[in-house]
Amino acid sequence: MIPPAIAHTQPATAGLLSLLAATPQPPDSQNESSHSQAWKDSGVIDLSRSPHAKLKTVPVRAVTIQEGFWSPRRKTNLASSIPTMRNELLAHGRMDNFLRLEGKSSAPQKGPVYSDSDIYKWAEAVGFALQTADQPQLRETTAAMIREVVATQEPSGYLNTYYVDDRKPLRMQYDTQTSGHELYCIGHLLQGAIACYRATGDRTLLDAGIRFVDGFLLPNYGPGPNQKGIVAGHPEIEMALVELYRTTGEQKYLQLAGYILHGDERIPLRPQQIAYMYCGSPFTSRTRLEGHAVRAMYACCGATDYYLETGDQAYWKTLNTLWDDLTRHQLYVTGGVGAREAGEAFGDPYELPNARAYGESCAAIGMMMWNWRMLAASGEARFTDVIERALYNGINSGMSLDGTTYCYRNPLAFDPSGNASDRNAPEGLIRNPWYDTTCCPPNLERTFASVPGYFYSTSPKGVYVHLYDNSEMNWHLHDGNGLKIQQATGYPWSGQVKLTVSPATPAEFAVFLRIPGWSAKNSVKVNGTPVNGVRAGEYLAVHRKWSANDVVEMEFDMTTHMLKANPAVTEDRGRVAFQRGPIVFCMEHIDQPDRLDRASATNLSAYAVHLDASTNARFDANLLDGVMTLEHPGTIRRTSADPGLYYPASAAVETQEIPTTLKLIPYYAWANRGPAAMQVWIPYLQV
Amino acid sequence: MIPPAIAHTQPATAGLLSLLAATPQPPDSQNESSHSQAWKDSGVIDLSRSPHAKLKTVPVRAVTIQEGFWSPRRKTNLASSIPTMRNELLAHGRMDNFLRLEGKSSAPQKGPVYSDSDIYKWAEAVGFALQTADQPQLRETTAAMIREVVATQEPSGYLNTYYVDDRKPLRMQYDTQTSGHELYCIGHLLQGAIACYRATGDRTLLDAGIRFVDGFLLPNYGPGPNQKGIVAGHPEIEMALVELYRTTGEQKYLQLAGYILHGDERIPLRPQQIAYMYCGSPFTSRTRLEGHAVRAMYACCGATDYYLETGDQAYWKTLNTLWDDLTRHQLYVTGGVGAREAGEAFGDPYELPNARAYGESCAAIGMMMWNWRMLAASGEARFTDVIERALYNGINSGMSLDGTTYCYRNPLAFDPSGNASDRNAPEGLIRNPWYDTTCCPPNLERTFASVPGYFYSTSPKGVYVHLYDNSEMNWHLHDGNGLKIQQATGYPWSGQVKLTVSPATPAEFAVFLRIPGWSAKNSVKVNGTPVNGVRAGEYLAVHRKWSANDVVEMEFDMTTHMLKANPAVTEDRGRVAFQRGPIVFCMEHIDQPDRLDRASATNLSAYAVHLDASTNARFDANLLDGVMTLEHPGTIRRTSADPGLYYPASAAVETQEIPTTLKLIPYYAWANRGPAAMQVWIPYLQV
Questions:
Q1: Higher pLDDT, A74 or A28
Q2: Residue B55 and residue B453 in contact, taking contact as beta carbons nearer than 8 Å
Q3: Would the pLDDT of A253 be above 60?
Q4: Beta carbons within 8 Å of A611's beta carbon, 6+ residues apart
Q5: How confident is the model at residue B600 (pLDDT cuts 50, 70, 90)?
Q6: Which residues lie below 8 Å from residue B601, measured CB to CB, with a gap of 6+?
Q7: How far apart are CA B339 and CA A100, in angstroms?
Q8: Of A80, A137, A529, B587, which has the most beta carbons under 10 Å away?
Q9: B166 close to A (CB below 8 A)
Q10: A355: nearest CA partner in chain B
Q11: What share of chain A is helix, strand, coil (3-state, %, to 5)?
């Protein structure tokens, strides 16, 4: 029953095992040498020993984000989001669930079946935050919480506060595996544990995770005749197990991840379940994205992780097929995915509704994490373009500017008078401080906390620059030569980026500069000399001998584009979206100089833009913490009377087009000034 | 805690009670006298004594549908649908659930919590069918099933096969009331029982229903200090209780219906539950349609029934507000309602997606039943227009032409390559013989079986003619004068209708002729003489002295219309729908003379129609059991290459418009030739 992929990779992993025979460094090691295996040197994911990773991650702590676009977001994350989310977790009994099992609380179990994961995801956000910020109090508070968590672990290694007492017999039953989220919780425990370990060297939570896997999971679940079947009802454990393998060198974790990705035929599953869970049949048999979007994205993360370690070409083929499906049929212009509210699911090809867009924050994050892995496997900038689209737009929209409220859904149009609520937002608001299913808030927090880790990669040839913001990287090339890169830029508002590249010792290597796919005209100069061969949507490899303070000056094309969607996207027909640089814009009712009355405002489609006019961009330092705004000539369409719901096409409906100027703001900043009508896709005047 | 409405109506109901003092006729009575209160003389609902019903129903059996549009549908319903659905019910353990409790089956409980209602709804379909068809075997089979059902009734009157054994303590707990469907099942039991009683006079199931209400429900649930709270988690019991009041004359049933419609403040409900269930707060406080569409429609039926008996103006005001919301914002051009799959719910105003339309068959049926009650209360043809739109299109689409498969969802566009499945259609097909939640199939069967009951009404002034098809009515006016009306017509394919009106004794009265709202030009002649004052969307009252064989000749305008939707319906922008007479059309890929290749066919939006061309209608007797087809000039848009998911509006996308002729079929007949791409709203060429 062992999937063929494992067998194929035996030679590779055998070699890998010998490589891993070296004793791991003690957690308190301060060794920063270039080939150190220490906890401090690992990136968002640790690809340092992954044989099929063309690019290697750079530690989060190696990159310091300075004043610029991401800095206020990250400061707010640390100062407001992470502490207020802790308060919310406590207020909603998420720690009491653990304390009760220790006899320290008499509160009843609270929250859905996956509530333990809320703590683990928050701990992961803390772990990433502590990798760049010295916060002794946060560190100690979190360590204390982790001690309470670990205290509830059973001698068998089992750890879950929901499947206790009367529910104990349900543990890991097949029905529980498909819907009970036990392994989902452990996956998040492991990810949180690893982020904390990489921040502080503290193995407390990590060891608990290992005890679960070694003591409870591996002996009882797997292909063996005395083992029971295993399925990830909500994928997450796969990528966690691969990261545990990367962290410990223990191949058994990689094997189990592969086994889960292959699916266990002993578990009876309906086709609908296999589609919805995105697990339970061989991952390599998938041909399209479907089912629950977060599940599918996490499964793709795990599968790419598995490929990065094994090089299994069947996985790589499937992953590329799925990525084509993503980018050809399923991706919102904001980088959101999972269009359908019912089942929080991927829809049909081109099913991309606007007001009813689900676009769960977690799904966009999972999509970005998957593309990060695809980028590492390939070194191709098309993946970075997708990462950037999601990060700056459909993920960035998920957290309010003050860092205390969050979007679960990220629609592309909004009518505040409408029935906008969903099961997760009982108050009908789009931004809320808490959801009973509170996956998105800590997921957003971990993403902003880990952003520095997405700026650079290294390869045997040199260094890759993926993202642009004022920042300083201090890391090294594969040969150990120290490397500092300073970025000075007004990105994403400005297209000018200045890099100062300073190897410790002058050396010949390549700096791979990402030329964004959206930038039509680009120029790159090194120490004032133009570089040829710059192509949008690719990495420009600048091979040369680099010395301290070499300067790279880039200029990207910040022309605002109106985008059309494929005609098959029915809701976007006759509409355009505005994009300038990586930023996708939207119009909110509140900003329009000639506002419709309140009744008409709920549906903004009475506004229309002129296709043949040009857009004026203006930075407004006082608006929404400082944003670029767009102004574009358009009209307000007034009709003499409501034509009714349906009317003959031959009927004369008197319409009047009143000239106006439409004002747009970045999509990520919407809904920060109370509920207001919003749309990304704006009707255009037919000519 | 008794809602004020009850108190207001005490005088009316007191008078009513004295009227009802007459002993009911024995079930085997053959008395057909004009003022008989016998079971045989009641209509789809019995409004004969409803003080606020301007129109009175005509018995289903009084109208014989002859060869024409509805005849094959109704024959198939009786010959195929009802028998095959019985087999499905048996195969899926729905009768075993009862037999088990009698010790006659060892099968475990099967099906969801509301599975008893499947039997009751099917029994209701049989009841209506037996009102016009003499089917001794079906009658006896059904009676035998009913005997098994009734045998499981407990001495307390309680009857439900799900809340037994371990689940007994959950009975009527507040959580169970909101989601356990006990009263929903009893509501359907009562409706099924009344339909059977009105067919055969057999009171077996009716008496069981009365025992439940009298023995179990009324003593324990209600406003009294020793009673517990009551809420309809899925409205249905309200209209069933009013019909039970109409059938028995017992005012207590009407009072309980009013109490449930008012809501019981003692039951703690979240705002979301109150919205979703459409129950739990005063019905008269509602201002819009929201939540689960079938629940909302059934609640509106119950509330209108309550108004018909009490005349409570607060109800009438609310009902009209909700109807405006329905027709201004929420109604598909097919007559479907409940746009949103998530929660099977009404969406925001103008949220009317096409491919993702939910449009559950049951919701359209509930919507038609509500409009039937509004029509009775008002005598206004705008309600009949809505009834006709739903009946001929969005309800009619719910059953396959062979009568053995059913739509749960009724989308307005379909892509067979897509992920069309929903939780109710595990195989991903749009028409299925069985759903685990099998509400729609028997609901469609009862609708087709009861269609004759919707053709006519009477009032003190005369007779109303609502629907047109070859048929013969044999009934009487309020003064007892016998009345026969013969219809001869090719409706809905032809606009010519000939009525032969024959009172038993020549008399002065009015024939109210419905002039459909879609018909722009109309002519009406009586015995060859034109009648003036004919207005579309109204009843034309022809007051005169009528004698045997008086002839009314009507001609409606069968010009095909292209309809546009309100611009706020984002998915319909730049598209038109075709309607001819009451029939809404669609295009299926299979019919197009110049078909796109298979890959492009899944999204039909490459086809476009010319707005300024005229449509050719042609009857095809060999297609889909005989349908009118439409042909309209259009184009196929071919683009040089896939422009991608998003592309700059300024990009030159080479498109070629290839002239073609689009062919359309009636929407109700779609998906009868295997899965094929379909769309109701077709793009038009911008001029």
A1: A74
A2: no
A3: yes
A4: A562, A576, A684, A685, A687, B649
A5: low
A6: B589, B595, B677
A7: 44
A8: B587
A9: no
A10: B351
A11: 40, 20, 40
3-state SS, residue B223: coil
The answer to whether residue B603 neighbours chain A at the CB level (below 8 Å) is yes
Residues of B in contact with A562 (CB under 8 A): 648-650
Tokens (6 digits) for A157:
């290694």
The H or E element spanning position B555 is: strand B550-555
Closest CA to B603 of A566, A559, A613: A566
Across the interface, of B331, B421, B606, the residue whose CB is closest to A272 is: B421
**DSSP 8-state assignment for residue A160:** -
Chain A residues closer than 8 Å to B349 by CB: 415, 417-418, 602-603
Q: What are the pLDDT digits (tens) for B512-556?
A: 999 999 999 999 999 999 999 999 999 999 999 999 999 999 999
Among the partner residues A348, A413, A567, nearest to B418 by beta-carbon distance: A348
Q: How far is B554 from chain A (nearest CA, A)?
A: 23
Is pTM beyond 0.90? Reply is no
Mean pLDDT confidence for A461-474: 98
In three-state secondary structure terms, B117 is helix
Query: Touching check for A328 and chain B: CB below 8 Å?
Result: yes
Strands B616-620 and B627-639: antiparallel
What is the Cα–Cα distance from B374 to A395, expressed in whole angstroms? Answer: 48
Residue A238's closest CA among A325, A303, A321? A303
Minimum-distance CB partner of B649 among A564, A569, A570: A564
B570–A650 CB contact, under 8 Å: no
Q: Give the amino acid at B406.
A: Y
- A332 token code pair: 């919102």
Q: Is residue B484 less than 8 Å (CB to CB) from chain A?
A: no
Task: Compute CA distances B49 → B193, B207, B246, B250, whole Å.
Answer: 20, 22, 8, 13
Residues 6+ apart with CB under 8 A from B235: B277, B278, B279, B295, B296, B298, B299, B302
Contact state of A565 with B342 under an 8 Å Cβ cutoff: no
pLDDT of residue B567: 83
Is the model's pLDDT at B423 over the cut of 90? no
ipTM of model: 0.88
Nearest CA-CA partner of B123 in B160, B86, B153: B86
The 10s digit of each residue's pLDDT in A286-301 is: 999 999 999 999 999 9
* Contact across the interface for B562 and A649, Cβ inside 8 Å: yes
The string over A30-62, giving b where at least 16 C-beta atoms fall within 10 Å of a residue's C-beta and e elsewhere, is eeeeeeebbbbbbbbbbbbebebbbbbbbbbbb
Statement: residue A651 has pLDDT above 90: no
B649 CA: distance to closest CA in chain A (Å): 5
pLDDT of residue B598: 53
Q: Does B565 touch chain A (CB under 8 A)?
A: yes
Is A613 near chain B, with CB under 8 Å? no
> Which helix (H) or strand (E) covers residue A315, if one does?
helix A313-325
B535–A contact, CB cutoff 8 A: no
What is the pLDDT confidence band of residue A419, given thresholds at 50, 70 and 90? Answer: low
CA–CA gap between residue B410 and residue B297 (Å, rounded):
17
Q: Do A342 and B346 touch (CB under 8 A)?
A: no
B541 near A CB under 8 A: no
The pLDDT mean for chain A works out to 91
- Higher-pLDDT residue of B687 and A175 is A175
Mutate to test the interface with A, among B645, B678, B679 (most CBs of A within 10 A): B645
Which of A419, A424, A603 to mutate against chain B (most B CBs within 10 Å)? A419
CA distances in angstroms from A469 to A494, A511, A580, listed in the order given = 10, 17, 16
Residue with tokens 């009105």: B198
